[in-house]
């Protein structure tokens, strides 16, 4: 049984590329669109919106089911910022004993744990003999609907 969400690919962010996408300022209806909503206010560059630290941001493809409760599914791409410090309850990409994984980081008076977001899986209690590096903090999840 698979025990964690694993990293299957890592790509560096290319914040130099600019792709402008139309941004509609009026609300988008789930029913029939109104002709009055047929205008674009400005363009949106997703790099500006999603990436705060371009030189420290990576895209990571993941596989596994231990984080489905937080909306992370097999095949999703995570936007990971290595410049951010993890806080209690951050979702992180971590390297534990040489293996990349994705979990929720928990820190309290009892120590640190890497928590799954699926009740089928157990938390990972971090002990002194474990080699842990918090590689980066997940800022966004991209997946198909």
Any overview of this molecule?
A hairpin with an 8-residue loop joins strand 8 and strand 9. Helices cover 3% and strands 42% of the residues. Strands 1-4-5-10-6-7-8-9 form an eight-stranded antiparallel β-sheet, with no helix packed on it. A two-stranded antiparallel sheet has the order 2-3. It is globular, with a radius of gyration of 18 Å. 19% of the residues are buried. By secondary structure, the protein is mainly beta. It contains one helix and ten strands; from the N terminus they run βββαβββββββ. It has a domain of 98 residues: Ribbon (Umud Fragment, subunit A), CATH 2.10.109.10.
CATH topology type of the domain at 6-13 and 53-142: Umud Fragment, subunit A
Q: How does the overall form come out from the CA principal axes?
A: globular
Total number of helices = 1
What is the SS-derived class? mainly beta
Q: Give the termini separation.
A: 26 Å
Q: Give the SSE string.
A: EEEHEEEEEEE
Strand content: 35-45%
- Reported CATH architecture of the domain at 6-13 and 53-142: Ribbon
Major sheet = 8 strands, antiparallel
């Amino acid at each position: 049984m698979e025990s964690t969400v694993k990293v299957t690919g890592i790509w560096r962010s290319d914040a130099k590329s600019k792709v402008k996408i139309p941004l509609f300022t009026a609300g988008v209806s789930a029913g029939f669109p109104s002709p009055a909503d047929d205008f674009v206010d400005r363009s949106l560059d997703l790099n500006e919106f999603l990436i705060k630290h371009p030189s420290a941001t990576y895209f990571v493809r993941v596989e596994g089911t231990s984080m489905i409760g937080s909306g992370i599914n097999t095949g999703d791409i995570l936007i990971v910022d290595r410049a951010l410090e993890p806080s209690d309850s951050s979702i992180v990409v971590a390297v534990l004993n040489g293996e990349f994984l994705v979990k929720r980081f928990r820190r309290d008076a009892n120590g640190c744990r890497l928590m799954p977001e699926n009740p089928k899986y157990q938390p990972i209690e971090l002990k002194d003999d474990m080699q842990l590096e918090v590689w980066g903090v997940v800022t966004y999840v991209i997946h198909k609907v």
